[in-house]
Write a structure and sequence with these properties.
This protein folds into two domains: 201 residues, Rossmann fold; 148 residues, Glycogen Phosphorylase B (Rossmann fold, 3-Layer(aba) Sandwich). The chain contains 13 helices and 13 strands.
């Protein structure tokens, strides 16, 4: 198939540091190429991919201090895709609702993977206005506020098997907090949990401009506690050691988390996750196997006393079985094929014999797991 992947422009694909959506787009795009498909990635010009890159903006918007209106580059991105839409069998957007008015009548099968929260009141009228726009959710919990939208599937995020691997030579000696510092991620509760458990906490996280005031007033004073080490934002190469050296990842969220990529990053390293029971958490974490799902700070502190009952090799095995990039890509291919079959006027690109062989081999491997 000829597939267009359309990424947000805020970060490169993959991001140099933090960035969940663009990171997933990178893993999916490269996995689709491995399956033998002809993939074009529309993204910022500083992106790196095994697919054909169509740069829609010179570099990631977060790294460009001259950009004040981030909507303008995305409008240009949509127009760029619209002009060449007929060259593809499927257009796959990662821009939430932005493609709806542009592509609902374009005559080319498209879908949008929704990566963000959907419980905001202003979103329902937008999705109601485009009831037939094809959507993929990243957890079943994510779609609850919009149950009547045109959901084609729930497809969990995945990581390349070899991207993050356990470092068994490291002796876990601290708790970890990884991701973004904002009110809904509740780093303040992670600090409290670690204090009550008598364990050190390492914080590897970024601060967005929008959360700078919250960081300065609420979080920064807490970072001076003797049990807290603020590492700052880390890149992909640093995550293995950071997560493998942790007794557990703390995920005390206070919002309906759509997926939580950091959870499967921890699982990939064999590191258990202690997470609050919100949003997607029960779909990602298997309680008592890959971590513990708790309701509050006392529950998290108690769960830390039970870590020895968990098997880190089994956690890694669980990740490989449920959250690989290859599995994610194959699920998307299945959705693409459904879209093509539902559009009889669309003639999908016929794969070469080599492409069919690659795809057949992959399907065999998937069925053999």
């Amino acid at each position: 198939m000829r597939i267009a992947q359309i990424a947000p422009l805020y970060e490169a694909v993959p991001p140099k540091l933090y960035g969940g959506t663009e990171r997933v787009v990178s893993y999916l795009t490269d996995a689709l190429v491995e399956l033998g498909h002809e993939v074009t990635l529309f993204a910022s010009g500083d992106s790196k991919t095994t697919a054909h890159l169509e740069p829609a903006w010179p570099r990631a918007l977060r790294l460009d201090p001259t950009i004040s209106d981030t909507f303008a580059p995305h409008l240009l991105l949509l127009e760029m895709v619209r002009r060449v839409a007929h060259e593809f069998d499927v257009l796959h957007f990662h821009l939430s609702y932005l493609p709806f008015p542009f592509f609902s009548e374009a005559g080319v099968p498209f879908l949008s993977t929704v990566h963000g929260r959907l419980d905001l009141p202003e979103l329902k009228p937008v999705f109601d206005a485009f009831p037939h726009a094809p959507l993929v959710s990243i957890s079943n919990a994510q779609r609850l506020p919009l149950p009547h939208a045109n959901w084609l599937a729930t497809i969990y995020h995945g990581l390349p098997d070899s991207l993050l691997t356990p470092h068994p030579e490291l002796q876990p000696g601290y708790l970890a907090f990884l991701g973004r510092i904002c009110p809904e991620k509740r780093l303040d509760l992670a600090i409290e949990i670690a204090a009550q458990a008598g364990l050190p906490l390492k914080v590897a996280a970024k601060v967005d401009k929008a959360d700078q005031a919250y960081f300065t007033t609420v979080i920064e004073p807490l970072l001076s506690a003797p049990h807290v080490e603020f590492v700052g934002e880390i890149d992909e190469a640093q995550k293995c050691a950071f997560l493998s050296g942790a007794k557990a990842l703390l995920f005390p969220i206070d919002w309906p988390e759509p997926f939580g990529l950091v959870m499967i990053e921890a699982l990939a390293c064999g590191t258990p996750v202690i997470a609050f029971n919100r949003g997607s958490v029960p779909e990602v974490i298997e309680h008592g196997v890959t971590g513990y799902i708790v309701d509050d700070v006392p529950g998290a502190v108690d769960a830390l006393t039970k870590l020895d009952a968990l098997s880190r090799p089994l956690i890694r095995e669980h990740f490989c079985r449920r959250f690989s990039a290859q599995l994610m890509a194959q699920h998307y291919v299945d959705v693409y094929m459904r879209l093509l079959h539902a559009a009889p006027c669309t003639k999908p690109h016929l794969a070469s014999s080599a492409e069919r062989s690659i795809d057949a081999d992959h399907r065999y491997q998937m069925n053999d797991r």
